[in-house]
Design a protein that fits this description.
The chain has 201 residues and is α/β, with parallel strands linked by helices. The chain has a single domain, classed as 3-Layer(aba) Sandwich (Rossmann fold), CATH 3.40.50.970. The protein is 31% helix and 19% strand. It has a six-stranded parallel β-sheet, with helices on both faces. Strand 7, helix 6 and strand 8 form a beta-alpha-beta unit. 46% of the residues are buried. The structure holds thiamine diphosphate, iron/sulfur cluster and magnesium ion (MG). Iron/sulfur cluster (SF4) binds next to loops.
Length: 201
Amino acid sequence: MRTNLMKFQWCPWCGDYMIHMAIKQAVQELNIPKHNLVMVTGIGCNSKMNQYFDCYWAETLHGRGVPFATGVKLANPELTVISVSGDGDTYGIGLGHLLNAARRDINIVHITCDNENYALTTGQASPTTPEEIKTKSTPQGNPTRPLDPIALLKAVGCESVTSVEDKDIKLLKETIMEAIQHQGFSHVNVQQTCPSWKKWE
Ligand SMILES: Cc1ncc(C[n+]2csc(CCOP(=O)(O)OP(=O)(O)O)c2C)c(N)n1
Ligand code: SF4
Ligand SMILES: [Mg+2]
């Protein structure tokens, strides 16, 4: 973690703290040196994540972290490339990139911080918001079926895909370690706490 540069900017009790800690522990336990690690994010609350790691990193565009991470990996296959983005980013605007990277079996890890809403833009409905939930963009209740990212990734042949809660940091760390060690595309969906906007649980 870079203690000299950035203060955490997340709300108290945000699940992104746990996800950050789990990634950090996984990388440490696997002894990945910082010059071999690249963290790529999109845009969102979660995407501040890489600012708090002491490694190479890039904060890219909303929905475009996966193609950026793909390019990094193709340029230097020796690097460990971890891409992190939100549910709105990954499963909305970036869904095509996610599924095609999984189809190509690019050897990167993609972690989705799934708080079931567009948190940075103050809590609009996302592709994983449950039906009937009232949000800023769905004041009468969400009329749209949520998508199932695990089923979608399995449908395109992804062999390393799992969903895990942010609350169990040990399981989360172990899941991320397995994803890093998998030779091919890995997707970790993290069911993320967002006390500011996800108030339906
Ligand atoms: C192309 C584009 N469209 C829209 C936005 C505005 N925008 C910034 S963050 C965000 C929502 C992020 O939601 P999510 O990906 O779920 O991340 P979270 O904030 O919940 O962690 C949006 C819509 C943008 N930055 N770029
Ligand atoms: S709005 Fe939600 S996701 Fe964003 S920092 Fe606050 S708790 Fe975390
Ligand atoms: Mg979100």
